[in-house]
Amino acid sequence: MCLYSFDISISSMLYTSSCQLELEFLYITLVFNIKLQLSGP
Q1: In the Cβ-directed half-sphere of 40, how many Cα atoms lie within 13 Å?
Q2: 3 state SS of 8
Q3: CB 14 within 8 A of CB 22
Q4: Which are the contacts of 15, defined by CB distance < 8 A and separation ≥ 6?
Q5: Three-state DSSP class for 2?
Q6: Alpha helix locations (H) across 1-41?
Q7: How far is CA 25 from CA 9, 13, 19, 40, in A?
Q8: pTM for this predicted structure
């Protein structure tokens, strides 16, 4: 199951190339947010 909460055009691109790209994007975003919290004040 894929969640497309951003631009429709981007969602279409991700859908045509399966859900892999979106999953990678969500994973990178999650890791980035965690690193920001760990390095935060």
Answers
A1: 7
A2: helix
A3: yes
A4: 2, 4
A5: coil
A6: 8-16, 20-38
A7: 15, 13, 10, 22
A8: 0.44
